[in-house]
Amino acid sequence: MKNSESFTKSKRIAYFVSPHGLGHAARAAAVMESVGRMDGTVHFDIFTTVPDWFFGDSLKTARFTYHKLATDLGLVQKTAFEVDLGETLRRLNDFLPFSPTQIAEAAKLVKTLHCSLMICEIAPMGIPVAAEAGIASVLVENFTWDWIYRQYSTDTDSLSAHSLYLQDLFAAANYHIQTEPVCRRIKADLTTAPVGRNARTPADVIRNQLGVPTNAKMVVVTTGGIPQAYGFTDRLNKLDQIFFVLPGAGAQMQMRGNVLIVPHRSGFFHPDLINAADAVVGKLGYSTLAEVFYAGVFFGYVGRADFRESERLEVFVQKHMAAMALDESEFANGNWTDRLDDLLALPHTRPGGINGAEQIGRFILDLI
């Protein structure tokens, strides 16, 4: 099917996006922006339960229409660092396998919209929907859920059955793109550099808007797309020569001395905050890694023992970035602040080269 005649002259693309955290949506947004910069006539139909504002804030050149649809589950999180396996399994049992009616209804909408291609940001539903709609599917991933679920499953439990079902589903994609850091390498149609959203506003402008003095150090503390309250802000206040920005740590913008609490939707573009910082401290997730990588700032990262992807990300960070590993307990209790001088004294690395989003953008435009 790689020479499928299902492609038409339509430049409308369906994009099924996993709602697990915001990292997958961030990677999808980076790809869409890249395509939009290269060809402003392409229109994306985004299917996901990620809030529509995320794409509104992330996409400035890409044209899109938002459709609310549960395309994927992933893992249910108790906190940014803890998986709720029981609830994950309960929801997976309701979600999988996809019913023929479910696939047919989504495919009918995709056909009505005259989409000529399906891109799946690890959202498995898009692959059978594309087949039903008679268009080709492109899977974009650095891991797939069947590989993740095998960490938690046994040969006899339901999670294992879901893993086998999804393994076959992912294998049915017509085109397969893997993005570094890749967790499980297979023969892919394209393997790219990390994919991350680009900063839009110069660092000095962002720092001025935040009220950070020109010569002061600025540290962003983040756990990605999952809101997190921190119990160590009093320790940050004692380091009054350093300004700390905490995205997702509250519902409203608040300045507490040298600590700025920033809601997820704040008017500040997250890659701009990272680009304006001297260091980023927080959970090791794909989109944070990619955005820190391209900004070339220091990274104090916290891995996750209960998530298979984390180990593969850490190998990449240690090899290619100016970084320091932190354990989860020292992050949670604020003891990482005792090592902040060491983090800020690391040798500088050059920002990453070509963004993988550009590589995927060219691939997609060649297809349509």
Q: Judging from the principal axes of the Cα atoms, what is the shape?
A: globular
At the first level of CATH, the class of the largest domain is Alpha Beta
Output the helix-strand order: EHEHEHHEHEHHEEHEHEEEHEHEHEHHH
- Distance between the first and last residues' Cα: 15 Å
Mean pLDDT: 92
What does this structure look like?
This protein has 368 residues and is of the alpha/beta class. Helix 1 links the parallel strand 1 and strand 2. 46% of the residues are buried. It folds into 2 domains: 12-193 and 356-367, 3-Layer(aba) Sandwich (Rossmann fold); 203-344, Glycogen Phosphorylase B (Rossmann fold, 3-Layer(aba) Sandwich), CATH 3.40.50.2000. Helix 1 packs across helix 15 (356-367). It has helices spanning 23-38, 52-58, 85-95, 100-112, 126-133, 145-149, 158-171, 203-210, 233-238, 270-276, 286-295, 308-320, 328-333, 340-344, 356-367; strands at 12-17, 43-48, 63-68, 117-121, 136-141, 175-179, 190-192, 217-222, 242-247, 254-256, 259-262, 279-283, 298-302, 323-326. It is built from 15 helices and 14 strands. The protein has a 7-stranded parallel sheet with strand order 3-2-1-4-5-6-7. Strands 10-11-9-8-12-13-14 form a 7-stranded mixed sheet. The chain is globular, with a radius of gyration of 21 Å.
Give a short synopsis of this structure.
By secondary structure, the chain is an alpha/beta fold. Helix content is 38%, strand content 19%.
Key structural traits:
368 residues, alpha/beta, Rossmann fold, 2 domains, seven-stranded parallel β-sheet, disordered N terminus
